[in-house]
Amino acid sequence: RKEVEQDPGPFNVPEGATVAFNCTYSNSASQSFFWYRQDCRKEPKLLMSVYSSGNEDGRFTAQLNRASQYISLLIRDSKLSDSATYLCVVRGSSGSARQLTFGSGTQLTVLP
Amino acid sequence: EPEVTQTPSHQVTQMGQEVILRCVPISNHLYFYWYRQILGQKVEFLVSFYNNEISEKSEIFDDQFSVERPDGSNFTLKIRSTKLEDSAMYFCASAAELNTGELFFGEGSRLTVL
């Protein structure tokens, strides 16, 4: 089983749609969780951290289910500028308590 | 806004040649990292560096790789004898805190080994 697994997509959605991405991680001892965004041929950038109680940042909502080792990201009212690859990132996954392990990413294209 | 800068943006080299990729982390950051991303694949951890020494390294970071902070600003990744499979985008990142999830990445150095 991959350490951090994501549906690669692509997800093609119309502007204004709601879209959800899922991620699973293999190491139950993983400590913290994040969503990063990566635009085509650019560097990853932190989108948001994921907290146990769930958290929201504007149109973005992140949820964590430790029992199922599952993380999600919900984007409401999609904008063209949301088109990117969304990376699920876990700290403490690959035997190191500190390093970040990246998923392969889910590609989103928001269509006009 | 402070940023991590990397040079060169693209380097083409022959197999077996040495390459040095350079990074200038954000000035008040203490933790430095190199990651790589082979085209179409995931971002992979190579090495972390703190207080002038390697903190952790992955299996990818073998004897062909080394890192150095030669002065107060630059952080370099050296590949001694490049292989075809070293072709990738190499990202430098820095962080202000140890256990933060917020790494600030540079724009990357694309290495092409022929």
Structure keywords:
heterodimer; A: 112 residues; mainly beta; six-stranded mixed beta sheet; 11 strands; B: mainly beta; seven-stranded mixed beta sheet; four-stranded antiparallel beta sheet
How does this model look, in words?
The complex is a heterodimer of chains A (about 110) and B (about 110). With about 110 residues, chain A is mostly beta strands. Chain A is about 0% helix and about 55% strand. Chain A has strands at about 5, 10-15, 20-25, 30-40, 45-50, 55, 60-65, 70-75, 85-90, 100, 105-110. In chain A, strands 2, 4, 5, 9, 10 and 11 form a 6-stranded mixed sheet that branches. In chain A, a hairpin with a 5-residue loop joins strand 4 and strand 5 (about 45-50). By secondary structure, chain B is mostly beta strands. Chain B contains no helices and 11 strands. Chain B has strands spanning about 5, 10-15, 20-25, 30-35, 45-50, 55, 65-70, 75-80, 90-95, 105, 110-114. In chain B, strands 2, 4, 5, 6, 9, 10 and 11 form a 7-stranded mixed sheet that branches. A 4-stranded antiparallel sheet of chain B has the order 1-3-8-7, with no helix packed on it. Classes of the chains: A mainly beta (about 110), B mainly beta (about 110). The interface of A and B includes residues 31, 42 and 43 of A.
